[in-house]
Amino acid sequence: MPFEVSRRDGVLHLSLDTPNCAVNIFDRRTAEQLRELLPQVSPRDTRAVVFRSAKIESFINGVGLLMIQSARSRETIRVGGDFFRTAYHAVRDCPVPTIAAVRGNCWGCGLEFLLNCHYRIAADTCSTNFFMTEVVNYLLFPTFDGVHNLPIQLGFENALNLLLWGERWSSQRAAQEGLINEVANHRHFDESVNRFVSRVLAGGVSRCIPERKRLAWTEDCETLRRVTEERIRALPPDYQQVYLNCLDQMVRAARKDELDEEDHALARSWEADSILSRAGKSAHSFFFIQQIASQFPPPGATPPGLARISFTGEGRSFAAFAEDLESRLVEGVTVTPPRMRPDAGGFDRIIVDLQGPRDGESCAFLEVDVRTGDRRDHSDPKPLRLYSPIRAVNPRFFELAATDHAVAQLVEVTSYLRRAGFTIVPTRTGGRFGTDRLIRSFLGPLAAYVIRGGDVRDVNFTLREFGFIRRPHALLENLGIESAADWLRPVLTDQESAAALPGVLELLRGKEFAGGRWDQDLLDALAISWTAFARTGIQKGVFSHPTLIDVTAREVIDFPLMQKSLCNWLSQGRVAEALGCVDRDRDLVGEEDLVVASDYLAGGRGFYA
Amino acid sequence: MLLEEVHDKVSQAVLNTLRTPVDLHDDMTFIGDLAYDSLRVASLSIALEEEFGQPILLNDWLAASDDPMSLTIGSLNAYIAVVFGEGS
Question: How close does chain B come to A62, measured CA to CA in Å?
């Protein structure tokens, strides 16, 4: 059974351990067990119920997306949802205190589960964080009343930030905002939980679920509602409805003492709409792609996992990065304080010396080349290089590039960094990073379009209609015009275009979002440019699997969820259409890219079967 | 590729994702009988890739089902057969 059940001193302990799974999933069997157990709980023989996780890095990561992805009728969705909701309500309505002891990811329906627990304590590890995945990752209307509980328990602004804008809270932030009662030191987690339970039983802890039923709806709330609505209207059209529906329900919950039948019926209807929508189905698809990508590199025959990590480094970014890594507590790995070297004249390079399981056994050197580093200085490649040119836009993403003789280290370091909360794409590279190649394949056609007289508003309009939330301006703000121009100059054939490039990139960095029109030529040019990037990346072995390209595209350029994924979108049919329609006179893509895309077509196979 | 070959490779891939050997039947459901969750579907994709030599996504198979309980070994065989040009 998913929950291991034990009883001590009148307290019922339920420890979740989803069988045969790396993380805890609130699946049908979990709901079944709670539906059976909780109605039997009585104050006569039970003083409290404590929920824990047997997996140290996962409290509850989500509900069974398999069920959601494969549901096609409203009736199936309603019946399935009601089954789970009954389990959630049993926690909320339990006649004795329900206490959540959170250690590990508390995401999506796991956070909605938490909102039904009366008292909450959480560990201080980096994997213990709180994140509403539903809307941001899957374009789903939340199923388990989170949309109603969030504003009441955390306030309107916090609810919006968590649900619509993807804020991810640490335990410390969760405690500050009242999502949990307190933070526990991970080294003494069990003892802290026991003391917390004792204090709850003694009446010394306040319930996280407030007595009041609605918020004081102030002028500030009304202004925030209007601003949020405007922000939603700027999203791609296919995304807007689920965001607006969530906003509507949050406002209803915030302003009413009790939601009525009509409100609940509307919520159920919008839940079904989101599950059945094309954008929703595509967004769920990306989850499966991420899961496949996370299994690369395959574990294989590798030495034992890293047990100790120490840092030596140079450059002004080193201290901040080392401090960040040091603060990310990963169970089983000890991080020793960084040893600083004198600043090497502002050269922005970070070298992290990772020690292996035995003291003194060096596993890998990580050269972390942050944005302003010297990109051309890769003549002396370290076995592993951790790289991201977009940390301000996406601080969680890194490419981890390995040379051929660092495969074992690649597995270990990827595993460690993923456990530390980063999204890691492992690559094999001898020269330019995969991330850089992708950015060039994205910005190249956009810059060429404007150089050839295209309107920057048409660029933004076309990208928005296609599903991009983040526009090129955010990427360019992070990269800087000079760096981006350095990357793009080699793909421009004539000197006149090269000279115009900085000015054009300035235009793309602006925020010309109003107006504009769809230009299919631009999208065709992007399809060809991306095909060349992806095919070359696979052929040269930079990426060992197309899902790794898909994750890179999602993380780095914000490739739209509603298009499933880059390699999925680049089907043979799509590329054939692009090659047949692209206006070659407009010169939006280079000849080399056209050749690679044609080769891809001649191969007769897509990136996926 | 023959249907029989598809069937054998799919069976092998499914078995590779299970911890204990199971006697597979076409009407077995992934969610009900084999206790699959979304994470194991990802493992199945990789196991299928090992058998068929090409990356395979199962999103369309999942999205095409009428009901989660209709995701069976048989429906996966039929889907893979169509993907590789058999049975279409």
Answer: 10
A355-369 tens-digit pLDDT = 544 444 444 556 655
Of A66, A72, A568, the CB nearest to B31: A66
- Taking the CA of residue A96 and the nearest CA in chain B, the distance in Å comes to 32
CA-CA distance, A176 to A166, in Å (whole number)?
18
Within a domain: B88: no
In this prediction, residue A53 has a pLDDT band, given cuts at 50, 70 and 90, of very high
The CATH fold of domain A3-276? 2-enoyl-CoA Hydratase; Chain A, domain 1 (3.90.226)
Residues of A in contact with B35 (CB under 8 A): 19-20, 29
Among B9, B17, B39, B45, most A C-beta atoms within 10 A, so best to mutate, is B39
Q: Given this model, what pLDDT does residue A316 score? A: 60
Residues in chain B within 8 Å Cβ distance of A291 = 38-39, 41-42
**Structure letter (DSSP) for residue A421:** T
Which pLDDT value is given to residue A382?
Answer: 64
Rounded distance between C-alpha atoms, residue A143 and residue A63, angstroms: 10
How far is the alpha carbon of B70 from chain A, nearest alpha carbon, in Å?
9
Predicted pLDDT at A20? 76
Q: Give the C-alpha separation, A38 to A327, whole Å.
A: 38
> Any CB–CB contact under 8 A between A67 and chain B?
yes
Q: Which of B63, B68, B83 sits opposite A609 (nearest CB)?
A: B83
**DSSP per-residue codes, A364-376:** EEEEEE-TTS-TT
Indicate whether B8 belongs to any domain: yes
Number of domains in chain B: 1
Which of A:564-603 have CB within 8 Å of B? 564, 568
Residue A463, min C-alpha distance to chain B (Å):
25
Give the residue numbers spanning the domain of B40: 3-83
Q: Are A85 and A143 in contact (CB under 8 A)?
A: yes
Q: What's the pTM value of the predicted model, to 2 decimals?
A: 0.87
Instruction: Indicate the pLDDT class of residue A536, thresholds 50, 70 and 90.
Output: very high
Partners of A387 in beta bridges: A369, A399
In 3-state terms, what secondary structure has residue A56? Answer: coil
- 8 Å CB contact of A605 and B54: yes
Give the pLDDT confidence score for residue A75 in this predicted structure.
87
How many Å apart are CA B56 and CA A253, to the nearest integer? 43
Backbone angles phi, psi at A63, to 5 degrees: -95, 170
Domain A436-603 is of which CATH architecture?
Orthogonal Bundle (1.10)
A72 contact residues in B (CB cutoff 8 A): 65-67
- Asked whether residue B40 is domain-assigned, the answer is yes
Q: What is the CATH number of the domain that holds B78?
A: 1.10.1200.10
Q: Give the pLDDT score at A373.
A: 37
Q: Is the complex ipTM more than 0.85?
A: yes
